[in-house]
Amino acid sequence: MSNPPNTVSGSQSRWEEAFLRFETPEQERRKFEGRLRKLGAADWPRNSEIVDLFCGRGQNLVVLQTMGFTRLEGVDLSPNLLGRYSGPARMIQADCRDLPLPDASRDIVVVQGGLHHLPGFPQDLDRVLDSILRILRPDGRLVLIEPWDTPFLRFVLFCSGISLARILWPPLDAFHVMVEEETPLYQKWLGNPEVILARLRSRFGTEILDIGWGRIAFVGRPKA
Ligand SMILES: C[S@@+](CC[C@H](N)C(=O)[O-])C[C@H]1O[C@@H](n2cnc3c(N)ncnc32)[C@H](O)[C@@H]1O
User: Residue 31 is part of a domain; what is its CATH number?
Assistant: First the structure.
């Protein structure tokens, strides 16, 4: 298996080190729970088979478990991040561009901040969206949250370029390092909103589309 874009085999990359100090697991869980509830997760059947792609250290899975979901899986390339999860979900080390899961076998696929890491744009985006479409049941759902070019994100990016601001607020320094490590992928992602939306809309009917505060939230159903 090839190395994850953000990891060095057997060690912790600069990006991972910054990611792990950007937010505590508790802060991540609070953020994920707020997002999931806003996107209707409280109404999803509790026996749904849910896969969290690009799951990192799995805090989204912890939240889903506390909400009563029991059939949970996480997929990520990084053994270092996967190894930090502790809980009942099945954790799979794999590339989300080529998911090792059967066709039409899952009810909900969640992605929170993974697509903007893919090295090939837009072909890797197509590969992941096609993989998601393949593993979802016909009445399944994609729940997606990714960074988006909004005035708020531009302001945060501006502030993260100021060294005094990074000293005064350490999470901003972690954010700065992550952006440095993700560039130019991050810039390519932020610079192509229409391409991304067209790719989503060609495969999924839109249930929710909410853009603001530096994020896109999209919930869609596979198109027949
Ligand atoms: C920004 S983190 C998001 C983690 C988690 N979803 C969260 O919001 O905290 C992106 C994650 O994607 C993973 N990743 C990057 N490319 C990947 C790929 N092609 N397949 C699977 N995971 C990948 C990285 O290892 C990292 O854990």
Answer: 3.40.50.150
Residue 11: its pLDDT value, please?
60
Question: Is 174 inside a domain boundary?
Answer: yes
What range defines the domain where residue 55 resides?
A: 14-39+46-222
Residue 2 has pLDDT above 90, yes or no: no
For residues 83 and 101, the answer to whether their CB atoms sit within 8 Å is no
User: Is 147 close to ligand 1, i.e. is its CB under 6 Å away?
Assistant: no
Tell me the C-alpha distance between 44 and 69, whole Å: 9
Q: Does 4 map to a domain?
A: no
How do residues 45-73 score in pLDDT, each as one tens digit? 999 999 999 999 999 999 999 999 999 99
The residue nearest atom 12 of ligand 1, judged by CA position, is 54
Mutational test site, ligand 1, from 23, 77, 145, 179, max ligand atoms within 8 Å of CB: 77
Residue 94 belongs to some domain of the structure: yes
How many structural domains are present in the chain?
A: 1
Q: What is the mean pLDDT of the chain?
A: 94
Query: Is residue 166 within 8 Å of residue 172, measured between CB atoms?
Result: yes
